[in-house]
Design goal:
alpha+beta
Length: 356
């Protein structure tokens, strides 16, 4: 009995220590500017859902061992971490309310990872037609010529811009003034199969994001579709998983730097989003908050999980807007029909009109 109690006690304190280390690392990611490629960033990728799940086990172990003081102390620390680390904001109570709505145009925007149309491009196009959005930012939108032609025919009210069919698309009901496919310093990886880092680099096909300027009743508005690198390692060995994880961390840092540098070069109302493949406590979301507003947290006190449909535990999909835009509504759309492994994020934005 003493041996069992000793083992349980060791396990409880080990798990508690791991949770505290991960939580403190996540706090650094969320609230400080870490140097590029810092390994501390790894802690920010741990979903707070799992921190709470492990914490529940720790509390049960402490109670089973009748260590009430340890349980209460640990609970107090976790409550503090809930407010520091949870996907939580008070921006809802500080948002601007337009005094004269006539000075704004309202547009509906959706960001959606369509999982390379694995569940059928016909179903996706049907949903997009019915949803009535003005601008659509698609991730994992692998558009071979046949699929691109299908979308053009099935969505005739939209202008469709693609990054040469690799990953990202922008669909707009508004006239497109101009657009760019902007290369990132990283290389295209497979969305559906394993990835060999050396082969990815050897192929030399750069990843990119898409930037379109649309005409919203006379006002130029920047819309950008972005997806940060993700994928599977070459195999499931520990060595390859660590190697791939480090490669992803460094690649996402490089992509973020390139994207934020580009944001500095554009002016006017700006909306961007997509599947960023990072959780809210990461350094990437912290850095993006310097340039734009997390639309969902502008409309809600708590974030909502967008991945995975079968068992949602993470928020990976985002819409951001510049501070000269006012958000009116934002929601994670809970799908009745399975069209992807992500939920879409949809928002209504108030765009300031150009005074003539």
């Amino acid at each position: 009995m003493k041996i069992v109690k000793a083992v349980l006690s060791f396990l409880a304190f080990l798990l508690a220590s791991l949770v505290l280390i991960i939580s403190l690392g996540s706090i650094l990611c969320k609230y400080t500017n870490l140097p590029p490629h810092s390994l501390i960033q790894v802690f920010g990728y741990v979903s707070f859902f799992w921190i709470l799940a492990v914490s529940a086990v720790v509390l049960l172990l402490f109670l089973r061992l009748r260590r009430l003081n340890a349980a209460l102390s640990y609970l107090g620390v976790i409550i503090i971490f809930v407010f520091l680390l949870n996907d939580f904001s008070l921006s809802l109570f500080m948002k601007r309310i337009p005094e004269h709505t006539g000075a704004y145009d309202s547009i509906k925007v959706i960001a959606y990872n369509v999982k390379y149309y694995a569940y059928g491009i016909e179903k996706i196009s049907g949903y997009l037609n019915e949803s009535g959005n003005d601008v659509i930012l698609l991730s994992e939108s692998v558009l071979i010529p046949e699929k691109l032609e299908y979308l053009k025919k099935s969505l005739p009210s939209y202008t469709i811009i693609s990054d040469n069919g690799h990953d990202l698309s922008i669909l707009s009901k508004y006239p497109v003034i101009s657009y760019k496919i902007v290369d990132l310093p990283t290389f295209v990886a497979s969305l559906s199969s394993n990835n060999d880092i050396e082969k990815i680099k050897a192929n030399g096909v750069h990843r990119s994001f898409v930037h379109a300027v649309i005409d919203v009743n006379g006002t130029p508005v920047n819309v950008l579709s972005l997806r940060l690198l993700a994928g599977r390692p070459k195999d499931h060995s520990i060595g390859e998983c660590i190697k791939w994880g480090k490669y992803l961390l460094n690649s996402q840092d490089e992509e973020l730097a390139a994207f934020t540098d580009y944001l500095k070069t554009i002016s006017g109302p700006t909306i961007f989003g997509g599947d960023l493949n990072v959780t809210p406590n990461t350094q990437i979301i912290h850095q993006l908050s310097h340039y734009a507003v997390d639309t969902y947290l502008q409309e809600h006190m708590f974030g909502a999980f967008t991945f995975k449909l079968s068992f949602p535990t993470m928020r990976l999909d985002y819409l951001f807007h510049s501070k000269n835009i006012i958000s009116k509504k934002c929601e994670v759309v809970k799908m009745n029909t399975v069209l992807s492994d992500h939920f879409p994020v949809r928002a209504v934005f108030m765009i300031p009109k150009i005074m003539k």
